[in-house]
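User: My collaborator sent over this chain with a note saying "see what the structure looks like." That's all I know about it. Can you take a look?
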Amino acid sequence: MKKDILKLIGLYKTLLEIAGDKSLAFKRSIFYFIISFFLQGLVFSCFYPLFYYIIKMEVTKILLWLILALSLTILSLFFKNLAYNFNYNGDLIDINCELKLKLGEKLKSIPF
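Assistant: Without extra context I'll predict from the sequence alone. Here is the result:
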């Protein structure tokens, strides 16, 4: 378990190093994904009481849990959209291009 956590931390540091000057946008994207997934988990936790009150036929509580689940879903989608801006904003393309250029420079320095 501890080794897995250390591997994840190492992967995160490697990704930050790869991101270079875009690391702040990458961190923000990861943060928004974490918030989005947490909210999505809260939506799933709303299903049990929702189904319970559907079986009990208590309409006011059904509406309460349904509105809560829908509002959490909308918030989750909002944060997921913010997180995906890292991909669609061109930052990911810039990082990929920089990596290709660095690889090309290293390949040019190899003697044939």
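A starting point for your reply to your collaborator: The helical segments are 2-19, 23-45, 47-56, 59-88, 91-109.
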